[in-house]
Protein 1
Amino acid sequence: MAGCIGVNGRSGTSSSSPPVADLNITPASINFGSVAEGATAHQSVSITNTGTASARITNVSILGSGFSVQGIAVPLTLEPGQDASFTAEFTPGSTGSLAGTISLTTTATDTPMLISVFGKGIVTSLSVTPASTDFGGVVLGNEVKKQIEIQATGTASVQITKVATSGSGFSLSGLSVPLTLSPGSTATFAATFAPSAAGSDSGEISITSNAADSPLTIGLSGQGEKRVVSLSVTPPKLTFGATAVGKSSSKDVVLKSTGNSNVDISAVSISGSGFSVSGAGKGTTLGPGQSITLAVKFDPSKQGSATGTVKVMSNITDSPTEIGLAGLAGEAIESNDVSPVTVGLQWNPSTTANVIGYYVYRGTQAGTYSKISAVVSATSYVDSSVQAISNTIYYYVVTAVNSNGVESGFSNEAVVTIPSP
């Protein structure tokens, strides 16, 4: 018997998956948070080919205001296992919440790849009041402080990180950093100018922050002045004229600080019979421009001329300041003892053409006169306004006046003494 034996079976076969391009992107969404208008926030994005075939990125597009990408050029091929990165940016051009999408077109299976992006545009702004500060003149050795206010005027908080001052003699105090100002809030500090030399100085305060207008600068200026201690006296001399014994008269003297520094009065003294002074003494201080009044009294106890001096001791360089005093004491003439006292004057007529009259002047000391008449057409005058005090001396002069109102110089002086009753 003949036969065959066969074995049935399938021949061996081999199978494998085709290559696949698969891209993974990190992060899949980006929230830039709050970003000041005009500023830029950055976020790195990583792309990795996790597949078994090459992946080709052919296009990158952006949807949404203020969003952009940097650092990627297309087309770009990534082999299996390769990665690449680029930077997503947010530069808000307006305030408020913004959203967008970064889209990558690729040859991978999950194209297009989308990255959601979010951000909020805010305003970080810092204002200052005043914008600049002028300290004016400051005496050497002194200092002047001025208040400055800063305010967060935007829609977001301002973080102040650094404060610096430049310029000779300028400094600031009362502002510690870091400092955060919420929207609308303020902070104040003091700027100080303490010059070290005479002359003009300038500088600035620089405030560094996250505000869009950082650094904020505040201009400073000032003038260093040499110390001047000065005292004026008005009037520089007192003349009391005729005063009856047993009577008194008073006159005021004004002391004024006319320099740029304090006048310290350490003492006020007076000499001369019949004179006294009140109104200031040891410990009186006059600031620049301030004044004080001294009251000087003449109270004679005997007839005759009297002189004296007020001395003001102070810290001015030419101290003491002296005020001359003069007075004339006489005996009062009782009206029932004598006729009213008058003085009669006569003079020669002027030879100048166009003269229409004369003015009469009188004084109680030689060389100092006051007008006591209207225009006198005659060449004589009776003065009935003299004081009835014996031994009082009066000094008289006259001037000629023409039709244009022009006066001549003084005539020769006439001297009259009131006699005793």
Protein 2
Amino acid sequence: MYKKTVSNTGGGMGESEDQKGHVAALAMIDTFAGVGATCFDVTWTNADGEQQAFRGRCKTAYLARILPAVLDC
């Protein structure tokens, strides 16, 4: 369902660690959607594991769209 893309920006070819994380996160969403999940309850935490935000019932398409930006924060 989600397409992995790799681009060459003049440096070495390959995926950055950020891109690998995005692909893995989207694959996880796709896996759950594949068995019938249509929405998720999402808790954002900081590096210390402290809750920073919560959003209930995020639709699968919405989460897939915003997740890369959230992971980049």
Protein 3
Amino acid sequence: MKGIHFILFVIFIFILNSKIIGQSATDSTLLPPTLKRVSVDSANGHTSINWDPSPSIDVDAYIPHVYKKDAYGEGYFPIDTVWGINSTFYLWPTPNGKVRSESFKILSFDSYGDDGLESGLTDAHKTMFINLKTFNNCNISIELGWNPYIGWDTNFSYYTIHRKKDLENWDTIADYNGLDTLFTDFNIEPYSTYCYYIEAHHKDGITNSTCYQCSIPAITKKPPDSIYAYGTRFIDENLVQLIFFTDPTSELADYYLVRYNETTQLYDTVKRIESLGEATIMLGDALPAPGSYSYRLYAMNQCGRVAVSSNPANLVWLKASNRNFQNFLDWNLYHTWSNGIESYSVYRSIDGATPQLIHTQFPPDSSYTDNIEDVIYDATQGVFCYSIEAMVTSADQSDTLGVSRSNTICLTPEPRLFIPNAFTPNDDGLNEEFKPVLTFTPLEYIFVIRSRWGNTIFQTNDPQAAWDGHDGGQNVPDGVYMYYIKAIAPGGQVVEKNGKVTVLYPNK
């Protein structure tokens, strides 16, 4: 009998100890509530928990739990007690939603007796957290990634992505299905700050869950506002100079000069340069061969991609030919200024003298014929050099004129003589003199007139001098006379000719 009393005493002590340490018994007949959602306040990171009441009538309270893992172990631990069978909401005012995703469960509690009874825990619901937020300054985009909402299983519907720029209002920018937890936003303006939060939707169309917003600055190096090709200039036979105006406030320093062959349609990177804080970039290029080329200057970003490109700048190629006393000029149009060409200026230099403007041509014409008969005797060497300058005025007429200068091409007319076969020295002012016309200025020269009996009646070494039909101050009789001309051209060619000229007096 004493043994039975001892056993009852031990049971009593065990029950008493259980009451002292606050342990509650689990009642399999006490049903848990239905956990509907856990959601993080996008502004402060606090987590709200919503549930439907337990169908058990003896429930006095609900106890939400959060999953923890620390030095003392891991598992779901109670965080508070919500009293009232019809209570269905709890706000956990910790900012944990700012820094991580958390899992929650909940149980029902019956306070009957001294120790109370608990139901089992519900299945877990897990909050969303944006764990990837990266600004890509290569393609100016923002990449987002988040862990999926867990707890709805097949009742999950889709995600909605919300965004705001700087101090603007929130906008809904995309809906994503349940398979996607990555999103790239390409609608980004550098030097702005973007905030995002994700919203998960239940198939009931009512229940949703949000995550804490993230803030991402879209900071990248400032590209130039623009790059303007001033023009192209030949400074030697195969060497061209290129001038570009760019934005000195640009934070990009890496530039590529690219040449385009308009005939073969192939591109070549001419050179890579560094320039920072300069308003004018001046570059040179040695042409691989004569041809039609254009150039662009590209500002490259940190990822080696084109940030800004200039307008193209093409070369003006001049071609020339000679026939008798005419030099024929042809050139390609300068076609890469957006405002078009104002005019083409034709410059000519004789025997290396300073080029002079001799003509202004207006588009679309790109040819000019220079008659050199009046200036041929001003040339001691007979070398005529030409260049073309294309000019354009900026749209607002305030900037420097754009100028593009062609190559220089030189012509030395073929040494030739043009000699009339008759003249009329009758004092009527028409065809009064006889002299050869040369396409060059001779280094040496002799011009002789002889009578039919071989007497010399006129002789000169002056290429400009002409026979006026006199001999000893008197008019020669009409008839046929002999001439002899010999001239040495600047190139050393000897031009020599004998012939006959007829003197006529029509009014006699």
